[in-house]
Amino acid sequence: MNDQTIRLGNIGQIALPVRDIQKSIRFYRDLLGMTLLFQFPNMAFFDCGGIRLMLSLPESEMYQNPGSVIYFKTEDIEEAFRQLSEKGVLFLDKPHRIADMGDHEIWMTFFRDPDQNPLALMSEVFRKQNP
């Protein structure tokens, strides 16, 4: 158990729901000049001044939302989940791995604010290098 209180502040990612991923990629890359970092069949990630912009087709009805999702970075997602749960934050899921990026994994968990806006915790867990 960690005695240090988790504080959120740094935004690591903002998600925008889209209807056509390829059309959106062309718009953000070709018209707005953003750098495409990587993509999956239903998602594309762009660099937006050091903050990741994620364009995605909703994967299920639970994640359909007409607005954006703000992802707060945390070093220890399990500890942040525990502390925020103890304070009364109701999470939609438990921390889970979203992607394996080779040298690190991306973990997330989702919750809502009092107005039902979707929010998330995200953590990039880097693999330990063997000496």
UniProtKB/TrEMBL annotation:
<keyword id="KW-0479">Metal-binding</keyword>
<dbReference type="InterPro" id="IPR018146">
    <property type="entry name" value="Glyoxalase_1_CS"/>
</dbReference>
<dbReference type="InterPro" id="IPR029068">
    <property type="entry name" value="Glyas_Bleomycin-R_OHBP_Dase"/>
</dbReference>
<dbReference type="GO" id="GO:0046872">
    <property type="term" value="F:metal ion binding"/>
</dbReference>
<protein>
    <submittedName>
        <fullName>Methylmalonyl-CoA epimerase</fullName>
        <ecNumber>5.1.99.1</ecNumber>
    </submittedName>
</protein>
<dbReference type="InterPro" id="IPR037523">
    <property type="entry name" value="VOC_core"/>
</dbReference>
<dbReference type="InterPro" id="IPR004360">
    <property type="entry name" value="Glyas_Fos-R_dOase_dom"/>
</dbReference>
<dbReference type="GO" id="GO:0004462">
    <property type="term" value="F:lactoylglutathione lyase activity"/>
</dbReference>
<dbReference type="Pfam" id="PF00903">
    <property type="entry name" value="Glyoxalase"/>
</dbReference>
<feature type="domain" description="VOC">
    <location>
        <begin position="10"/>
        <end position="124"/>
    </location>
</feature>
<dbReference type="GO" id="GO:0004493">
    <property type="term" value="F:methylmalonyl-CoA epimerase activity"/>
</dbReference>
<keyword id="KW-0413">Isomerase</keyword>
